[in-house]
Amino acid sequence: MIHEKMQEALNQQLNKEFYSAYFYLGMVDYFSHLDLEGFAHYFRVQVQEERDHALGFFNYLLKTGCPVQLPSIAQPPQNFNSPLNVFELALHHEEFVTQSIYSLMDVAQEVRDHQTQVFLQWYITEQSEEEDNMTRVYNRLKLAGNEGSGLFMIDNELAQRLYTPAVIPGVTLII
Ligand code: OFO
Predict the structure, then answer these.
(1) What is the phi/psi pair of residue 88, to 5°?
(2) Is pTM, for the whole model, over 0.85?
(3) What is the pLDDT of residues 38-52, one digit of tens each?
(4) Can you give the CATH number for the domain in which 37 is found?
(5) Domain extent at residue 102
């Protein structure tokens, strides 16, 4: 049986992952209205990935017999100053999530929950990739410009992003 402190932390992360999907949906909205379809597509893929992350926690809680809490999801920001501003916020958000996953791992170690430590390892690797991805686009926007032809070049590149369903060891993503 998963320790209560661990259950609570896993449930909080479930909510944060659904918030992440919501957070990036606001960015899809922003870019769609600017007709920057490549950027919008990039964040649509991000929304799908966040949904996978959330379902990973949901299914892990179910699999381990933990009670699932589904409180409200907070309202995300929807007003942004520029594409650069969006990626700055997205990068900060990913850094926040990384710290949150690290805190979960701290709890798992504290309560000697080895099973959850193995489960969380996937998320630690994933967070490192997410931070790298956001950093790369953020740096390109700073270099190539936040407007004009540089912006359209990045828009074209981001349109190529592919969604690959997450394969999280030990949990299925099918509801
Ligand atoms: Fe963006 O990785 Fe989940 O939240």
Answers:
(1) -65, -45
(2) yes
(3) 999 999 999 999 999
(4) 1.20.1260.10
(5) 4-158
Crossing angle of helices 37-63 and 148-158, in 10° steps, is 40
Q: Which two tokens stand for residue 32?
A: 């769609």
Tell me the DSSP string of 64-120.
TT------PPPPPP---S-HHHHHHHHHHHHHHHHHHHHHHHHHHHHTT-HHHHHHH
Could you give the 3-state DSSP secondary structure of residue 27?
Answer: helix
**Residue 63 tokens, joined:** 């699999």
The verdict on the CB of residue 20 being under 6 Å from ligand 1 is yes
Q: Which atom of ligand 1 is nearest to the CA of 24?
A: 1
Give the pLDDT of residue 158: 98
Is 174 inside any structural domain?
Answer: no
The number of distinct structural domains making up the chain is 1
Say if residues 1 and 65 touch (Cβ distance below 8 Å): yes
Q: How many residues does the chain have?
A: 175
In a domain, 168, yes or no: no
| Ligand 1 mutation pick, 97, 102, 125, 161, max ligand atoms within 8 A of CB | 97
Is the beta carbon of 94 within 6 A of some atom in ligand 1?
yes
